[in-house]
Design goal:
This protein is an all-beta fold. It is built from no helices and twelve strands. It has two domains: about 40 residues, no CATH class; about 130 residues, Jelly Rolls (Sandwich). The protein is globular. It comes from Streptomyces rapamycinicus (strain ATCC 29253 / DSM 41530 / NRRL 5491 / AYB-994) (Streptomyces hygroscopicus (strain ATCC 29253)).
């Protein structure tokens, strides 16, 4: 996938055909094919969400549901892990004061998750452990300061969790 300021190109390099849905239109992408669509720019809209369009990584992702979908500002997209006990990390680039974290889960929800905070990426402090199962979980971060926020997710069923949005305020 190549995401540019005006156009996004999705290419399927190999493997089986993959369904791609854009604005309600579905297309099967076959190996060697590409699909070009206008790039959505939620980063241009004012927001109080400190995590919106932030750099994000996951140690496990379904190729059709990447980690960036959790912070893209679109409730229709979602990140889904492929392996058990995944971790998702948001990089805010500099220390920010955080009041709350809200996780808006999809059909597959974790049984529990831990929120960890770091200023430098080397030293992590647990901020909260949440017993999941809810559609939406809001965690009070008590005005803590962090440059990185990590969710360590555990206890999900066979399918990995689906996270529609992760909001940091």
């Amino acid at each position: 996938m190549e995401i540019g300021p005006h156009q996004t190109t999705v290419r399927l390099l190999n493997g089986a055909a993959m369904p791609v849905e854009v604005r309600g239109q579905s297309k099967n992408l076959r190996p060697g094919q590409q699909l070009k669509v206008p790039t959505r720019r939620p980063d241009l809209a004012p927001t109080i969400d400190l995590g919106r369009c932030a750099a994000i990584s996951a140690d496990s992702s379904d190729p059709s549901s990447p980690a960036v979908a959790a912070v893209d500002g679109d409730a229709q997209t979602f990140w889904q892990a492929k392996a058990p006990d995944p971790a998702l990390t948001v990089n805010l680039e500099r220390p920010r004061r955080l009041r709350t974290l809200t996780a808006d889960w999809g059909d597959e929800r974790p049984k529990q998750f831990t929120v960890e905070l770091s200023r430098d990426g080397h030293h992590w402090t647990p901020a909260a452990t949440v017993e999941g199962g809810q559609t939406k979980d809001t965690v009070d971060l008590e005005e803590r300061t962090a440059a990185l926020v990590r969710l360590k997710i555990g206890g999900e069923d066979d399918d990995g969790p689906q996270l529609h949005s992760l909001t940091l305020r």
